[in-house]
Amino acid sequence: MKPFEIKKLIIDSLDADFDTAKFPEKLELEGICYDFNEDFEEAVLKNIFGDKVLSIRESEFMSNLSLLVSRVAITGIAAIIILLISIFITEGGSFSINSLVGLGDVYNEGLIYLLGGL
Amino acid sequence: MERLSNIGNARESYRKADDEELVRASLSGDKLAFSEIVNRYRKMVARLVKGMLDDSVYAEDIGQEVFVKLYYSLPEFRGEAKLSSYIQKIAVNLTLNEIKRRKRFFSTFAQTGNNEMYEYEFADSANEEKREAKELVNKALKSLDPKFRVVVVMRMLQGYSTKETAEILDLPMGTVLSRLSRAQEQLKNILEKL
């Protein structure tokens, strides 16, 4: 198709009553075709599902982290309970602030000696 | 091997499937079904995006964005309109946003036009006549204001009727008709000089 024919086609296509349904194919035959690169489809899928894989990995990491934190917390609570029981037993069935902070058997003189280095 | 042949069979069956089936399968997370949607409508999106953005390298990114946005908005697609129209609407919005963004960018950073941003790629460089035809269409489209360009692209490159163009662009029929007639006037003048 010569340039003047293309020009006429362009102008005609803008007539409101002109049937343009077959226009894209007609233009394609004249070399006026548009398409994306060959790897377009792959890139789109990578954009969508690649992100999804990343978000799945992120959520897996978060759930593993919370599992780890909860396990550490449970172990810590168990250790505290065992410690309290052992203090309770060694103190002969009673609790005091001193025994809880480990000063149950320390005499005042001993403490002064310890802190003052005398 | 069996898995590969299963994939091949699924691909083949999706090729024959209608849009509704593909949307349903995509919503259930079927990658192949969505890949078929991309394959089916990539040329349609390319005509619109590249026609509007002058075949630039950035059109490729906008094209990808169209399908990414489509994927995430599929749950909202109720099937009242055709899938092609739904995709067109997304493509039109993203393309017009890109044009606005560029306009802002160039008015801020570059006063000397934006020709260096564009990169022509010709379908068949061996065929001079075809190359010239494409160049002619690109130049004509580029010379139009985006609001006129979009109606021209919808009519000329996408083959939509004026009624369909009005529906996709969410414009009253009268506006589309007046824009078409003004675009036609402008194009007559432009094409005379080319």
Characterise the protein shown here.
The complex is a heterodimer of chains A (118) and B (194). With 118 residues, chain A is an all-alpha fold. Chain A folds into 2 domains: 1-35, no CATH class; 38-118. Chain A contains 5 helices and no strands. Chain B has 194 residues and is an all-alpha fold. Helix content of chain B is 75%, strand content 0%. Chain B has helices spanning 2-16, 19-27, 31-53, 58-73, 83-109, 128-142, 146-157, 162-169, 173-193. Chain B starts with a helix and ends with a helix. The chains are: A mainly alpha (118), B mainly alpha (194). Chains A and B meet through helix 1, helix 2 and helix 3 of A and helix 3, helix 4, helix 6, helix 7 and helix 9 of B.
List the helices and strands and how they pair.
The complex is a heterodimer of chains A (118) and B (194).
Chain A: H1 3-13, H2 23-29, H3 40-90, H4 97-100, H5 108-116
Chain B: H1 2-16, H2 19-27, H3 31-53, H4 58-73, H5 83-109, H6 128-142, H7 146-157, H8 162-169, H9 173-193
Briefly, what is this?
The complex is a heterodimer of chains A (118) and B (194). By secondary structure, chain A is mostly helical.
Kindly provide the radius of gyration of chain B, computed on alpha-carbon positions and rounded to a whole number of angstroms.
Answer: 19 Å
Question: Can you write the helix and strand succession of chain A as a string?
Answer: HHHHH
What structural class do the secondary elements of chain A suggest? Answer: mainly alpha
Strand content of chain B: under 5%
Distance between the termini of chain B: 57 Å
- As for the number of domains of chain A, it is 2
Question: Share of helix among residues of chain B?
Answer: over 70%
Q: Count the beta strands of chain A.
A: 0
| Terminal CA distance of chain A | 110 Å
Categorize the overall geometry of chain B.
Answer: globular
Mean pLDDT of chain B: 82
In DSSP terms, counting alpha (H) and pi (I) runs of 4 or more, how many helices of chain A? Answer: 5
Largest sheet of chain A: none
**Shape verdict of chain A:** rod-shaped
Structural class of chain B: mainly alpha
- Low-confidence stretches of chain A are none
Number of discrete helical segments of chain B: 9
Task: State the oligomer.
Answer: heterodimer
Task: Tell me the strand percentage band of chain A.
Answer: under 5%
Radius of gyration of chain A from CA coordinates: 41 Å
